[in-house]
Amino acid sequence: MKKLALAGMLAIGLTGCSSEDPQVLNLYNWSEYMPQEVLDRFTEETGIQVVYTTYDSNEAMYARLKLLDESAAYDLAVPSTYYVSKMRQEDLLMPIDRSKIEGFGNLDDDLVNLDIDPDNQYSIPYLWGTTGIAVDTDDVEGEVTAWADLWDERFQGRVMLTNDMREVFHVGLRVLGYSGNSTDPQEIEEAYEKLAELMPSVRTFNSDAPRMPYLEGEADVGMIWNGEAVMGKETMPSLEYVYPEEGIIAWLDSFVIPKNARNPEAAHQFISFVLQPEIAALISEDIGYATPNQAALELLDESVANDRASYPTDADMENAEFQADIGDDALQIYAKFWEMLKSGR
Amino acid sequence: MSSVTQQPFRTAVLVLVWGWLLFLVLTPNLLVVGASVMTRDPGSFLSLPLNLDAYRQLMNPLYLDVFLHSLYMAAMTTLICLLIGYPFAWALTKVGKQRQMLLIFLLIVPFWTNSLVRTYALKLLLATNGLLNNALMSLGIIEEPLRMLYTEGAVIVGLVYLLLPFMILPLYAVFDDLREDLLRASHDLGAGRLATFVHVIVPLTLPGVLAGVMLVLLPAMGLFFVPDILGGSRNLLVGNVIKNQFLDARNWPFGAAASIVLTLAMAFLMFAHRLSKRRIGEDGV
């Protein structure tokens, strides 16, 4: 009897690690970036179980996928803008078979066939969004209209920044009038010095769930992702999302299939599933980021479609800048100053 | 050959222990040493040629600063653990055997919960609108909520909370061995309470203190998730630098070198511990 049980456990173990098990999709996504309902419905429709793993920075995701080994065999990942081109160039991705993708035509013409991936051979846009300013209007008096306002003395110890090197430096660079994608060591150093002045005001860095420090009352003003601002506002109506004058940080997150995916078939199925207007609309309504799916826009709830935080106006997007790949040399300079910034007291 | 057949159990244990040390201790550490002398490579993480650049990079005053601050927080943690743990362990040996077991059991129970979860729980306590602030405000002790979360103090509180049992257990062991007749002899020979404490109790419990310090000080420098959660990703420990180098900056040689320096510091402390133990041993004779 005991032996039987042992054999049974062994069998379960074996099927668990079998590389050809078609019933599992390993999805590697940003934290809080996919409603559970979507995963459940996908499993219901296709019978494919979704193993959902999360990360909180492109760097962490990249570091795992780069290994291309068994411990990190994901079928789908969701890198941001410039990481798509980086991973494509480093041969980490599997080409997407468009004949297996339904609903590609639903996507906004402005968000496909971009420089990061001409003709979308390797990536399919999932959501796009912005990083702007969050203000708790209950605790903050007066207007906050620009990144530079964060340096105001009244915000001593009340500012939150995302725990994202590129985004934080983007803010420093834009305040000085430079591009957020600067690769000039001189400009990066100036941005570091500018940001170092902000540090005494900074209460915390957070990229897990950037709305939480505002809801917890730890921070009153600072950086936030637009979807987080929308989710946060549901709990705390006084949380406002502001488009800074110097320009918002914009990004587009896309589905990619890593080269060592075990179940690319299921990955294609999942992409098609999410491209359905109804599902895309559900995702955008639930987590507050903007869908690139034009057909979904018509299905959106009025309140979501008119929410400037999720769907900015043209004026809001003035001066907006997408993050671009800055190359490894510049990345090292950023990394050095980032460490100095965070360890400085 | 005969010993193998005669003592299968002994052989099995030896194989297990040596296999463990070889594959799970020696090999990974050698890999880390290897990585630390290689060159950073943006494409494949590591590449030849071998060099000591990573160690040279560690000499940067920035990292010295992080190391010293980390050491300071770890030292404060150790000191607080010692101040709480020493009387705690002593008192523990004064209660009846039965109750002693219960108290030790209670000390160990929190280990059954993942330390990450417990750290998040502390966050709920310390938050601006957290339990502690709400309690103090409703009692009228404070008017405005105290800012406790995301400070150096919060990091130290978290470290103390996680590491205190590691201080208490070795101390409990030495206090348990402390023979009552030695204390009585000290009294009989005319020593007062203070003199007995300084000249008898402290020297006899010193090995436990040193063991506790070792078990607290070095782990305290590596628990990177505590500053991440309670320090707001500020007040970094050496462990954070190592993690950031591996995950964010993707500079594996540098991360490996930092990790080796931390290991060497640990080895140095253990060596000092051995020396002091020998000295105490001789004194005791």
From TrEMBL, chain A:
Alphabetically ordered keywords of this record: Periplasm, Signal, Transport
Annotated InterPro entries: SBP, Sperm_putr-bd
GO cellular component terms listed in the entry, alphabetical order: periplasmic space
Biological process terms in GO annotation: polyamine transport
UniProt-annotated binding residues for spermidine: E32, Y82, D164, M165, R166, E167, Q323
Gene Ontology terms, MF aspect: polyamine binding
Locations listed in the record: Periplasm
Listed Gene3D superfamilies: Periplasmic binding protein-like II
Pfam families xrefs: SBP_bac_8
Similarity annotation: Belongs to the bacterial solute-binding protein PotD/PotF family.
Function of the molecule: Required for the activity of the bacterial periplasmic transport system of putrescine.
Descriptive protein name: Putrescine-binding periplasmic protein
